[in-house]
Amino acid sequence: MLNEYILTLITFVPLAGAVLLALLPAKGKLIQWAALLVTLVTFVLTLHLPAHYDYSAAGFQFESDHLWIASPAIRYHMGVDGLSLWLVVLAGFLAPFGVLTSWSSVRSRTKEFYIIFLLLQTAMFGIFVSLDLFLYYAFWELSLVPTMLLLSIFGRTENKRRTAIKYFLYTFPPSALLLVGMLWLYAKTGTFDFPVLQKLAETHAIGGTSCALFLVSLSFLFAFAVKVPVFPLHGWLSDSISDAPTAVAMVIAGKLGLYSMLRFSLGLFPEQSRHIAPLMVALGAIGIVYGALLALVQTDMRRLAAYSTLGHLSFCVLGIFSFTIASTDGTIYQLLNHGISAGALFILMAILYDRYGTYDMTQYGGLASKLPWVTTMFVLTALSLVGLPILNGFVGEFLILSGSFIVHPAWGTVATLGVILSAAYMLWAVQKTFYGNLSAKCSSVTAKDMNGREHLALWPLAVLMLVMGVASPYWMRAIDMAGTKLAQPAVTTLSANVMGGTR
Predict the structure, then answer these.
(1) H-state helical runs in 323-386
(2) Is 49 within a domain?
(3) Which residues contact 24 (CB under 8 A, 6 or more apart)?
(4) Rounded to 5 degrees, what are φ and ψ at 361?
(5) Per the domain annotation, does 109 fall within a domain?
């Protein structure tokens, strides 16, 4: 019985929590404790999915499928597979750390912050589990509103409203094009139901000319590429991550756009995705190097993290459009890795900011002797992000690069250069911040090492960096089945081309 309703509970418990917070008085830390409780309950609910998932079965599980609106035909259809299973768990896992990180840093309008944050959680869960295009689009649009509100109200700089407007202007118009593409599909097929549409796409049974299908596929891809963001559509990223509260910075980029690209661009438009793959592979490889080069010249920690994010997400774009099983599996795994490692990085930067009031690395130096635990966690996180073997980042990057080299050796070589550059800027940031002579600012401020709340927020992430590096098959059981299905059409086409050439 619970299997049928578990996805509904996961999605809407944060919404119910937001309503609860609205009714509670803003006294002491009551709002924080209530938000933490809601996120913990939601996370516990997400653990039901891997505990009861049938790893030997293909297709969607934990489905809830009911007629919502008769005309047009819109269904309340939810489900997860190997692609979305661990992303749902990841979203639930990171939410309590977002609350803990914001515990003391959000000092005004606390109730509003946590209400909006929980609404964002509902939107994220809805995106990951929706199997009806209209239902998915409702959650997709819902995710824009809380993000923009959190940026404009709780941003850390005076330019926060400008940043929020820029984010909206970058992401909303492509979403409107996405809606047009969905309506075109409905007009041709009479359904918004994703599994039905996917079967029609596999049998080439969606009506319309090849040109029309290609344009519709571009409307989907463009909306997702902006949200990732894919180079050169990244104009909103640096300002948004620089200004965003830590809890928002942990989730603002990557997961929603890349998941949607895998699910809908590849799922509904496999042929069209293969046609545009050479361009996307090139943009992915360029984005890796471009992001790393920009990160190398940053002195602001948040902007370094923003361009690092661009580089790491570009790895995922390269993996998606290489259309090999290894690169697709690596992309899905790298989504999880980036959520863990980048989340830890943002928390650590927030800890330093709380103590010294700046993200400017030129004002730091010699902190290793004063903050040994912060230093240890920062070094571990940096090594995870650069892909040190036995840590989680290595698995994803290795699979993506090994898969991409099979079909795009030149661009794979370019991407490998990005790995070297990422090691350079992360280790430079560690050296600049924690080693060398103690700076005047750091010596003038009496700062304590990590407190209990901060240990609680960072140790689970640190443990996962190691466990996901040495025990990746546990996650790959579900991921590989989804990755094989997404990559198979390209493999089939490639094999046919090779055979045709042989003849």
Answers:
(1) 325-356, 372-385
(2) no
(3) 30, 31, 34, 111
(4) -70, -20
(5) no
